Backbone:
């Protein structure tokens, strides 16, 4: 049997009035338990963990295969390895341009160490004997110039410095 004021199959508009029903529960507010007094608490900053970007690695046979491969739109880095050509391709969706960024890398062997014969020539220093030989030639030329000046009638610098 329906409650008082409720008729099966008929909906009456609700205008804020519910007719009393002998079966309706009576609302009795229950007292709230006393809450402890709230005290301010200092919040300690939590360390921010860097999120690592997911990486997908796949073997391919050529650059064209890596270029044509479908990639997800979530920014995952896709690495394609071509072991035969010693190349690595990287492809990633770029949300700023709406396209894919594609990069290819070629493995190069480190250059071999140069031998001393192949190396650029370093500065050569004169030996003590070669230096003494050059000094002797310079002294002979200086004496020869002094003799020529004396024949002309001019005093050499050395002789002029001694006269003064």
Residues:
């Amino acid at each position: 049997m329906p409650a008082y004021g409720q008729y099966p199959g008929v909906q009456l508009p609700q205008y804020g009035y519910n007719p009393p029903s002998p079966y309706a529960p009576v609302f009795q507010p229950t007292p709230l338990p006393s809450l402890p007094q709230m005290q301010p608490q200092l919040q300690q900053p939590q360390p921010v963990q860097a999120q690592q970007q997911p990486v997908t690695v796949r073997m391919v046979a050529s650059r064209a295969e890596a270029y044509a491969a479908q990639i997800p739109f979530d920014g995952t880095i896709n690495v394609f390895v071509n072991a035969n050509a010693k190349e690595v391709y990287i492809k990633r969706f770029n949300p700023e341009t709406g396209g894919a960024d594609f990069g290819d890398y070629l493995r190069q062997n480190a250059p071999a160490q140069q031998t001393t014969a192949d190396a650029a020539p370093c500065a050569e220093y004169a030996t003590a004997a070669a230096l003494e030989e050059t000094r002797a030639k310079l002294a002979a030329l200086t004496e020869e110039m002094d003799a020529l000046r004396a024949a002309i009638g001019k005093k050499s610098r050395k002789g002029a410095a001694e006269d003064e």
In short: The helical segments are 63-68, 128-152, 157-163.
